[in-house]
UniProtKB/TrEMBL annotation:
Keywords for this protein: 4Fe-4S, Iron, Iron-sulfur, Metal-binding, Oxidoreductase
Top-level division of the source organism's lineage: Bacteria
Cofactor(s) this protein cannot do without: Mo-bis(molybdopterin guanine dinucleotide)
SMART domains per the UniProt record, alphabetical: Molybdop_Fe4S4 (SM00926)
Organism: Mesobacillus campisalis
Gene3D superfamilies: 3.40.50.740, ADC-like domains
Pfam family, one: Molybdop_Fe4S4
Biological process per Gene Ontology, one example term: respiratory electron transport chain
GO molecular function list: 4 iron, 4 sulfur cluster binding; metal ion binding; NADH dehydrogenase activity
Domain (4Fe-4S Mo/W bis-MGD-type) ranges: 4-60
One Gene Ontology term, aspect cellular component: membrane
Name under which the protein is recorded: Spermidine/putrescine ABC transporter substrate-binding protein
Length: 136
């Protein structure tokens, strides 16, 4: 019988940040329960936090960046993808100005990530066109 490892973590599905305990066997999540020690949720979770983890091991989950080349999405490296993004943003900014670029930030990410996102837009891009459902 496989040994069950217990991994404490924080749910990333919404900004509440519930503490979770993952039960892991053979490097696969087999169960999730609320962390009783977590001050935010004291062992409780909503249905997403407890059950919506099948995507973690889904065979069709995206694991690499894809760049559209000649109408077809082609697997690329992260370096290639970041170079592509930087070149496209630079070209758009030079041709149309900073306000031609906008960004929609993720409400499910951390405050720190949202801070960096708005900082990037305001300083590197030079635009205030940033929003998210958490009003980034
Ligand atoms: S368990 Fe539910 S309420 Fe808690 S952080 Fe996850 S999605 Fe949000």
């Amino acid at each position: 019988m496989a040994e069950t490892a217990k991994v404490r973590t924080v749910c990333g599905y919404c900004g509440t940040g519930c503490g979770l305990v993952l039960e892991v066997e053979n490097n696969q999540i087999v169960k999730i329960r609320g962390d009783k020690e977590a001050p935010v949720n004291k062992g409780q979770t909503c249905v997403k936090g407890a059950f919506a983890y099948k995507y973690v091991h889904a065979p069709n989950r995206l694991k690499h960046p894809l760049i559209r080349k000649g109408g077809t999405l082609v697997q690329s490296t992260w370096d290639e993808a970041y170079d592509f993004i930087a070149k496209r943003l630079t070209n758009i900014k030079e041709k149309h100005g900073s306000d031609a670029i906008s960004m929609f930030a993720c409400a499910r990410t951390t405050n720190e990530s949202n801070y960096i996102t708005q900082k990037f837009m305001r300083t590197a891009i030079g635009s205030n066109h940033i929003d998210g459902c958490n009003r980034t």
